[in-house]
Design goal:
Structural class of chain A: mainly alpha
Strand order of the largest sheet of chain B: 6-7-8-3-9-10
Oligomer: heterodimer
CATH topology of chain B: Rossmann fold
Number of domains of chain B: 1
Number of domains of chain A: 1
Shape of chain A: globular
Structural class of chain B: alpha/beta
Shape of chain B: globular
Helix content of chain B: 25-40%
CATH topology of chain A: ABC transporter involved in vitamin B12 uptake, BtuC
Number of strands of chain B: 10
Strand order of the largest sheet of chain A: 1-2
Number of strands of chain A: 2
Order of helices and strands of chain A: HHHHHHHEEHHHHHHH
CATH class of chain B: Alpha Beta
CATH class of chain A: Mainly Alpha
CATH architecture of chain A: Orthogonal Bundle
Number of helices of chain A: 14
Distance between the termini of chain A: 30 Å
Distance between the termini of chain B: 54 Å
Strand content of chain A: under 5%
Order of helices and strands of chain B: EEEHEEHEHHHEHEHEEHH
Radius of gyration of chain A: 22 Å
Chain lengths: 347, 260
């Protein structure tokens, strides 16, 4: 022992990981297989599903949830939840519509005010979680109810109605609509601008996660916060930034609401937070944090969109949608679990 | 052995309220040497490393680093002087790849904040290889490595980021015989690379083969401070177990066996 071997002998039990194994280790694989299976299934079950018009409808539905799923999945990788994400979209839309209408502002100014307010809400969520060290589940459950109440209460107090007044004729509506709620023809297919926003966000989030220091920190604070702190990762700052990321996505979704419909229903958004979480989980994000991908969440959102619209095209009773969604969530989590265990054991 | 040791404690002591955790302990660690700190649970080992690592400040005696007297108020200050501590929990994130763990918190970046991934992968592989650990796939989650290998990654990380003195807190405690052997080999590697190693353990069989100096603690006091040529393995084991007590125990056990 006093004369050490220069190099330890390689462990003979360590087999080289094949490219297939590496692929199986990717968090989004289960979701990708599920998406392909669903696509084939609905193509066979519904004649209308394969038309290009249907496809753009599916993509649109996917994008409206996919945009939020980007922020929510990053937050989940960072080890936290945001149950207020659904109503925050409505809050963001209402802030724009109400302030612009009441103060007769250009809608772009309303949008800027909304951005500031929504980011502040994200900051508040983050600060509350980090400072109190309470589970984010509880903290954001509280902010969820508070925001849901505020949305209704303030809207009724200001407009005397449960919806905001229409902002269709106000300054800036058309230009803002072009940015947040228009559609483009791409090679004969109508593509909603939200799809572009969605893809852009997914690309940015993927780059952030895998190619930047911030991404490293997100995985670390979700995987083992104490270890991360011990090697100098600013855990609190990273988590707060993630909550603000969700808020930014909520703002973008809120702007789509305002400029697509001109009026905002103040009771909307309740329950959507679960759909975002489902997208992220189906896409391979681990509920306990430290594992997942933005691309996976995008595939999860696509599965969500396909199921949502596929049931309509198959002319089934849409009441079954939620049953399907729940079943898929269950299957996806079990598949993820099995795949990950197998990979961990064999690597 | 150089004239001024890298780390030196003279008559160091520490008490928490009215509990005297450590009293009048001498210790030195020089580059290219392994200083072993032995003792049973509650002997004061962890208090000693907390002083060296900068987590606690000593009450009495002096603590010098490269001849300069110091009194650290945070582990960061100790780290800045090149004293790195590898704790038992290792501070790694199990699901992250080995190379990301290696550089976590000190990531190497290129322009536009982009991570320099090829550099970090290659460096991790090379640094681990230099420590004698041949890890072909640095993209594996670090949680899939064995306990001994994880220890080695943590040690290699400390060495790469400029450690001159390495404090290892019971690195072999939770390991099997073979894994412990692997870690001991890396301790020797670190010594060969010119580091001063302070190796805390309660196992004299792990300490004796790699150690150059041995400090044996019991109830917060030093009960022996020897260089390797002054002491044999059996003497060390006997001292560690509290010689007379062990004889007594052997005696009792023998009597107990005869009765049956």
């Amino acid at each position: 022992m006093t004369t050490p071997a220069v190099a330890a002998a390689p462990d003979e039990r360590l087999a080289r990981r094949s490219p297939l194994r590496r692929l199986l280790g990717r968090p989004e694989l289960g979701a990708l297989l599920g998406a392909v299976a669903l696509f084939v299934f609905f193509s066979l079950a519904a004649d209308a599903f394969l038309r290009t018009g249907s496809f753009s409808t599916v993509l649109y539905a996917s994008s409206t949830f996919g945009i939020m799923a980007v922020g929510v999945s990053l937050l989940m990788i960072g080890g936290e939840f945001d149950l207020s994400a659904g109503v925050m979209v409505t809050t963001s839309a209402l802030v724009t519509a109400l302030t612009a209408y009441q103060l007769t502002l250009n809608l772009w100014v309303g949008a800027a005010i909304s951005l500031a307010v929504t980011l502040a809400l994200g900051l508040l969520n983050g600060l509350l979680c980090v400072r109190t060290r309470l589970p984010s589940f509880i903290v954001t459950l509280a902010t969820f109810f508070m925001l849901a109440g505020l949305n209704l209460g303030v809207t009724k107090a200001v407009t005397g109605n449960v919806a905001s007044d229409s902002v269709r004729d106000m300054d800036g509506f058309d230009s803002a609509r072009a940015v947040f709620a228009s559609d483009l023809a791409v090679g004969g297919v109508t593509v909603d601008v939200t799809v572009l926003w969605w893809l852009l966000l997914v690309a940015a989030a993927t780059w952030l996660l895998l190619r930047t220091r911030a991404g490293n920190w997100i995985f670390a604070v979700g995987g083992a916060a104490d270890s991360a702190r011990a090697v100098g990762v600013p855990v609190a700052r990273t988590k707060i930034a993630l909550f603000m990321g969700v808020a930014f996505c909520a703002w973008l979704s809120g702007m789509h609401l305002v400029f697509a419909f001109a009026t905002v229903q103040s009771g909307e958004g309740v329950g959507n937070e679960f759909y975002y979480i489902i997208c992220a989980v189906i896409g391979g994000c681990l509920l306990t944090g430290g594992y997942g991908s933005a691309i996976g969440a995008a595939v999860g959102a696509f599965i969500f969109g396909m199921t949502n619209k596929g049931i309509v095209y198959a002319e089934w009773n849409p009441d079954w949608f939620k049953f399907f969604l729940g079943a898929m969530l269950l299957i996806a989590t079990v598949v993820n679990l099995v795949v990950r265990r197998r990979v961990e054991r064999s690597s | 052995m150089s004239d001024t040791p890298l780390v030196r404690l003279d008559g160091a002591g520490k008490s928490y309220g009215n509990v005297i955790a450590l009293r009048d302990v001498d210790l030195e660690a020089s580059p290219g040497e392994v200083t072993c700190v032995l003792g049973d649970n509650g002997a004061g080992k962890s208090t000693l490393i907390k002083i060296v690592a900068g987590l606690h400040r000593h009450d009495t005696g002096t603590y010098t680093v490269q001849g300069e007297e110091v009194a650290f108020s945070s582990p960061r200050e100790a780290l800045d002087l090149g004293i790195a501590t590898v704790y038992q929990d290792l501070a790694v994130v199990p699901l992250m790849p080995v190379w990301r763990n290696f550089f976590l918190g000190s990531e190497k970046r290129r322009r536009l904040g982009r991570l320099d991934i090829p550099f970090m992968r290659a460096t991790t592989r090379d640094e681990l290889h230099a420590m004698g650990i041949d890890l072909r796939d640095v993209d594996r989650p670090i949680g899939t490595l064995s306990g001994g290998e994880r220890q080695c990654v943590a040690i290699a990380r400390a060495v790469y980021f400029g450690a001159k003195a390495l404090v290892l807190d019971e690195p072999t405690a939770a390991l099997g015989v073979k894994q412990a052997g692997v870690v001991l080999r890396y301790i020797v590697q670190a010594r060969e690379r010119g580091l001063a190693v302070i190796f805390i353990t309660h196992n004299p069989h792990h300490a004796y083969p790699v150690g150059d100096r041995f400090l044996i603690l019991d109830r917060g006091r030093s009960i022996g401070y020897h260089t390797k040529d002054e002491i044999s393995r059996d003497e060390l084991t006997g001292l560690m177990a509290g010689g007379a007590e062990l004889e007594q125990l052997a005696h009792e056990l023998e009597r107990g066996l005869r009765k049956e």
